[in-house]
Design a protein that fits this description.
The structure is a homodimer of 678-residue chains. Among the domains of chain A are: 139 residues, Butyryl-CoA Dehydrogenase, subunit A, domain 2 (Beta Barrel); 176 residues, Butyryl-CoA Dehydrogenase, subunit A, domain 3. Chain A has 24 helices and eleven strands. In chain A, the strands form three sheets. In chain A, strands 1, 2, 3, 5, 6 and 9 form a six-stranded mixed sheet that branches. Chain A has a three-stranded antiparallel sheet with strand order 4-8-7. The longest helix of chain A is centred in the middle third of the chain and has 38 residues. Chains A and B meet through helix 4, strand 7, helix 9, helix 11 and helix 12 of A and helix 4, strand 7, helix 9, helix 11 and helix 12 of B.
């Protein structure tokens, strides 16, 4: 414990002030602290025993928390609910999903795709408060995930009865992965092919009742099963659903965008793209979640590294050396710390952009003209940026969790030190709400298209302003002065990202030149597009980070600037080929950059534990004996393991072990087989 | 199913012949097939239901298999047992550990560190066959893992009674992670500080009885607890052990190397290093395991990608496109395929080297002179190479598992598709028997030391022959001719590895020049050393791969050569900075290499499914409906999930869901609070 106390003796910055800055202000920090305390004090929210629960117990415990949260969510201000959910997402991510499926996905679909009167109708039935209705979200199928347009479930309009017939025609059309379907939901927003008069109108959304709300019996024609055990997030009861000609009234199709009239006439919306705004929210929240989960992982790994000692420098009798004092350990953790700050600032900015966009979209909803075209342009940009960031940050966070876990040595493999489960819970973020690879390609496609438009004289959006110089095709920029200075690094990344985008453009054009269709030319350029999206996202993160440094209070600026430099320089060394190829850095400058990374690590190391303190998570949220604030790791780890696993006689000693130990080889005992005696 | 059948129509190579070549000969393939069939037919070895077992059931099931295997292991030829274990390590890795702790670690310690008469004694007590003794291996402690010399447990010689007093003096000295301790073991090989006459002689090994073999009661002074849930491998019952002045006879210290005589005289061995030969075996087997587990992961991901269809090229009515037909998907999987072949060949060569080394060490055991110095040189080299390979290949395989799992989309998150658990089970390979980072640094230290010796005129070992040119400091080599040719790639990697080693040498010397001690100068150069070890290991893998291509049958040579090129070229593109910095490739050549990787992927894609067939795993071993040979993935996946998760009423509907749905807000119901009426 003295080991960690000495780490806090002389931080280079005011810890509390950094917490406020990261949270977005003192009042938010204080609200966050109230929520953390409230959760910690509620016995329902005990999480330290999660590893010892069975699947059945895990799900039941999660359900017992739903009511508590439903009451809070509907009685407290929305910002408080969002804050509470963002903390729950770190402490108890499986529960977050159990709850989020109803409020975020099911209710979100009603809100985003229902008309005002439809929304009012479902709210009157209790869809917001779960008083009468619990919902799930029926999009993916056994054979279809990313390609929503390819879903096979059908909703066929029957003009005779003014109903839709919802049907699963094939095995692969079985709704699959539907969170809440196995145990929880009475209703489902089902994505299905709208068919009217024999014609297909694409995938629309329909509210289908799954279970009787009084008896919980399955409705006629509805078949549901349990998907059972998953890699993580077992708190949520994912299921499969098959529909056999289930009839629903026409009014249960959500008609904010496309409408089906009594006559069977289909009215399509003027601005189909507006329906996609809703997708962005999930992605933005996953960028925040990446930052938040990474903070927890680094708190555990960094604090443990300040307590754990291993080997010495050969001085007899001296205590072993702290892990954190090894340059190689600094190299393992501190660039990840810098990445975590980068993600935090990007998440904040994306969230603000998203709210602004929603306001803008709300204003033009249903309208047209200049305002709408601005809004759609903004939507396209936010859609692409959020796609790239979601993919990039969830992968980055996943890597941070696993690196932090491995840095704990053997103790990282215990279920009681917190990061094994964190990995299993988090990794699904890389797949759901857009598979990361596909999102990166979408982002890359936007980058190529925007570069092409800019070449034709269209103005560049702010985040791509760096393309301007490259498009003008002047002399390629070169590093001048200090290779690790923040502005040098920004220029370096801008030039590399611009090159990557232009190289993707060239690949796309080479595809067209081969006579490929536009779609196939994009396919042909996919490796280059993915690369462009990655380089662009690094650059975006670094620019946002630098902007935050510039705006930060003077007392925080030095440490934040150092972290921003470490982020930019470490990432550049990891991709040194790009910088050498573009000629921005020479080989000698890359060597200087490596030396800069070493010295930046050593510098950040002095603040490492105070930086974890500034993340502001209580021991309850950190939920790992190795990441305790007081550094009393071994005693508390021992206590936790022994209290959750009390000594008991070996249950199968008599049935299995004794017979093993006491067995004799029968072949040695019996008489020889005799034959041919006659 | 037609989708996968068409993949097998025209392989470019004879599949069966490749299987023989990978396995090391037809007879081994056939033996392997017998073992796979035998396991598949044994109901004890059912593995498809593992995800649904509780921790207690998992452990009990594992114990029930121990006897079956103990009888087989002691009655069948050793090669067959090793082959069986290598398959079990893929199918049922947690059980492999449960069993391996006794045979590999406990019995291995008796064999490697006991005198012949000690070994005979313990064998007579049943230590080989588990007839009377089940063993565990007590090395790591709560506060000590990698630094074996720093272990705190003490074994103090008492000359009065001719006994050792084995004691855990502190909380951190608690033996921790001891596999088999919680439920299984009667005896333990305990690593403890030998203290004689008040003097410490370092860490030695002592056999301590933990439990009464008839009653399974703990022996006096022995305290054991259960470490409970882990990230993976729950089949093995890891525990903690504390000793409170436990007395054992002097003869229970394993004295093959250091001896304590009746008088208390300590006799140290002439060649202490020989004791470390045993460490190598575990590492070599983990290289094999990396290759074998990667084969399974790729079988699943590749076959699924040949069946799963997603999006189209816009042609109306056309079926969706196979994942495997997307260039980006080829990019995700096929370089991993090439890595898997590289690991397979490296594993084979390391295994052969290891057996040769053991023969050599056996011959000099106890002797000295020229033979011993040769053997020790060989030991040092094999030790370093195996350390680097273990670290590198376990990380590589871990990445392959996760990339393959992510490539399955949402279905990768199911516990029934095989790769979620594979990751959790496999990742401990990166930590145990030498934390990967520390092993890489050890390998790097050997590389620096060898380069320094070579500069002083010592001959270079074969695997480092490539340093010769770099040490001679002639002109740096440059690519000539075809950038992706196998010999060009070998030259490229050799030059980059040589540069990395020399750069680590310079960092080490810079440390010395600053006045640091030798150990601290090595610490100072750790980032460069780690990098050198990584570059060296890539180079080693590529050279071994090329050697195997050259020796392979003519019919296999084209496909193997293409895979070797893909391995070398893809890795080079991933590290393009190194090649640009060394000047081996120009920027244009790197672009050409990228284009080569694309075309190599497209070429290997045509053979992708046949290559998984050549891995030769039966559907039982693949153990994933998505990786089935016949491609009938959806039907079998649905069958598996539904059979393991039959429909049942929701267990907590009445207690939790009904009250949620039917609740009313109390505040709306009661009368208004009235006051101040007077």
């Amino acid at each position: 414990m003295a080991s960690i106390a000495e780490e806090r003796r002389a931080p280079s910055f005011p810890i509390r002030e950094l917490t406020y800055w990261l949270d977005g202000g003192r009042s938010i920090t204080e609200q966050k602290e109230r929520v953390m305390l409230e959760l910690e004090r509620d016995p329902l929210w005990r999480v330290s025993d999660h590893p010892n629960l069975t699947l059945a117990e895990t799900r039941e415990r999660a359900m017992s928390k739903v009511r508590r949260l439903a009451d809070l969510a509907t009685s407290r201000p929305q910002e408080e609910t969002l804050l509470r959910m963002s903390i729950i997402s770190v402490v108890d991510p499986g529960f977050w999903t159990r709850f989020g499926v109803h409020f975020g996905l099911f209710f979100g679909a009603l809100q985003g795709q229902g008309t005002p009167s439809q929304l009012a109708y479902w709210m009157s039935k209790g869809a917001l408060t779960m008083q009468g209705i619990t919902g799930c979200f029926g999009m993916t199928e056994l054979g279809h995930g990313s390609n929503v347009a390819g879903l096979e479930t059908t909703a066929t309009f029957d003009p005779e009865t003014d109903e839709f017939d919802v049907h699963s025609p094939t095995l692969t059309s079985t709704k699959w992965w539907i969170g809440g379907a196995a145990h929880t939901a009475t209703h489902c927003t089902v994505y299905a092919q709208l068919i009217v008069g024999g014609k297909r109108y694409g995938t629309k959304t329909f509210v289908v009742q799954l279970r009787d709300t009084k008896t919980f019996e399955l409705m006629p024609g509805v078949n549901i099963g349990d998907l059972g055990k998953k890699m993580g997030r077992d708190q949520i009861d994912n299921g499969w659903i098959r529909f056999t000609h289930v009839r629903i009234p026409r009014s249960h199709m959500l008609m904010k965008h496309t409408k089906v009239l009594r006559s069977g006439k289909v009215v399509e919306p003027p601005l189909a793209q507006l329906a996609y705004g809703a997708l962005i929210q999930g992605r933005v929240s996953m960028v925040s979640d990446s930052a938040n989960v990474a903070k927890r992982a680094l708190t555990i790994a960094t604090r443990y590294a300040s307590v754990r000692r291993q080997f010495g420098d050969g001085t007899p009798g001296a205590p072993e050396r702290k892990l954190l004092d090894y340059p190689i350990h600094q190299h393992r953790l501190l660039p990840l710390m810098a990445q975590t700050f980068a993600m935090t600032f990007a998440a904040r900015e994306m969230t603000a952009n998203y709210h602004q966009l929603m306001k803008q979209l709300g204003a033009v909803d249903g309208a047209q003209g200049a305002d709408a075209s601005d809004a759609i342009k903004n939507l396209k940009e936010t859609h692409a940026t959020s796609a790239g960031l979601k993919a990039f940050c969830t992968w980055m966070c996943l890597n941070i969790i696993d690196q932090c876990r491995q840095s704990l040595g053997g103790h990282g493999y215990s279920a009681y030190t917190g990061l094994a489960q964190a990995y299993a819970d988090f990794t699904v973020h890389c797949t759901w709400e857009g598979d990361n690879t596909i999102l990166m390609l979408q982002c890359g496609r936007y980058l190529v298209a925007t570069a092409l438009e800019a070449r034709n004289g269209q103005p560049l959006p702010d985040n791509l302003a760096y393309l301007k110089g490259a498009l003008a095709a002047g002399a390629a920029p070169r590093a001048t002065g200090d290779v690790g200075a923040l502005d040098t690094l920004q220029a370096a990344w801008s030039s590399v990202a611009a090159n990557a985008i232009l190289s993707a453009v060239r690949a796309f054009e080479a595809g067209l030149a081969k006579g490929l269709s536009k779609d196939n030319a994009y396919e042909f350029s996919s490796a280059a597009r993915l690369h462009a999206a990655r380089m662009h996202t690094y650059t975006y993160l670094l620019h946002r980070f630098a902007a935050q440094v510039a705006q930060s209070p003077a007392a925080l600026r030095p440490v934040l600037a150092r972290l921003a430099q470490l982020f930019g320089a470490h990432s550049a060394v990891q991709h040194s080929g790009e910088f050498l190829q573009s000629g921005f850095y020479t080989g000698e400058q890359i060597e200087a950059l490596k030396a800069f990374v070493n010295s930046a690590c050593a510098e950040v190391r002095a603040d490492a534990v105070p930086l974890t303190d500034a993340f502001g998570y209580t021991d309850y949220v950190v939920n790992s004996p190795l990441g305790r604030y007081d550094g009393n790791v071994y005693e508390k780890y021992f206590e936790l393991v022994t209290s959750l696993n009390p000594q008991k006689p070996v249950p199968y000693f008599d049935s299995l072990i004794r017979p093993l130990l006491e067995r004799t080889n029968e072949s040695d005992d019996g008489p020889e087989l005799e034959f041919d005696q006659e």
